[in-house]
Specification:
Layout lengths: L3 E6 L4 H9 L7 E7 L4 H14 L4 E7 L4 H17 L3 E5 L5 H14 L2 E8 L2 E7 L10 H12 L3 E2 L2 H9 L5 H20 L3 E6 L2 E6 L1 H9 L3
Parallel strand pairs: 1-2, 1-4, 2-3, 4-5
Antiparallel strand pairs: 5-6, 7-9, 8-9
């Protein structure tokens, strides 16, 4: 049976977090608590209290992140979401009680995974309503560009040269005319990926090293979902 999974970044107001989750309009069948590795003791205490409350009824797990690194945090959340989506589960992210940086990471994770993002609107510490955050669709990345991103990711996130990338994707060729066409096509795609912030290219001697950005890694992670 498919489940509805809630991802809950934990902050200083556990009551708002719990109540907004209940008011989301969706069942609560599995929960992930997102915590910063360097969070204060108060926040870990809140997480323990939330876990005690919810674990009587549902499975509760934790995701430990570095809240100061937005894209690394988004990747950590995306890895969990990807596994849940593979199992056919629906994922919702509750951004009601978190830092600005973690809220941005949640937005990125929701956009890349197609998950629902929601949060409480409060006044005087009480919830007025819970709203869905409508997320604009992602810019379409062509299949050729996605293949390039995934190939670089499979090489550990970077490739030593354009020639190496061509070799990985299309194999070696002694035909100079074919090679020049391959290189022109690859350079065109890489320029587009660099403009979109998904790769960075750095000249090293005669070669150009190609490296995925953190956003590029996030695209690669979700490419097969």
């Amino acid at each position: 049976m498919n489940k509805v999974v809630h991802v809950l970044p934990v902050g200083s107001n556990k009551e708002v977090l719990l109540e907004s989750t209940k008011l989301s309009g969706k069942p609560i069948q599995k929960v992930y608590l997102v915590l910063g590795k360097d969070d204060k003791e108060e926040i870990y205490k809140n997480a323990e209290d939330i876990e005690k409350t919810l674990s009587v009824l549902v499975e509760v797990k934790r995701i430990l992140v570095d809240k100061t690194e937005i894209y690394a945090t988004a990747l950590d959340i995306l890895r969990v979401i990807k596994e849940e989506l593979k199992d056919g589960n629906e994922v919702l992210i509750n951004a009601s009680d978190t830092t600005r940086e973690l809220c941005i990471a949640c937005y990125i994770a929701a956009q890349l995974s197609g998950s629902k993002l929601y949060m409480a609107v409060t006044s005087n510490g009480k919830i007025d309503k819970v709203i869905d955050i409508l997320i604009p669709p992602l810019k379409k990345i062509s299949d050729d560009k996605l293949t390039i991103i995934k190939t670089i990711d499979e090489q550990g996130g970077e490739v030593e040269s354009i020639n190496k990338l061509i070799e990985l994707l299309e194999g070696k060729t002694e035909d100079q005319k074919k090679y020049m066409a391959q290189r022109a096509r690859m350079s065109y795609h890489l320029k587009g990926l660099e403009d979109d912030g998904l790769v960075v290219m750095k000249r090293e001697g005669k070669n150009v090293r190609i490296k995925l950005t953190e956003l590029g890694k996030a695209y690669a992670l979700m490419a097969n979902v």
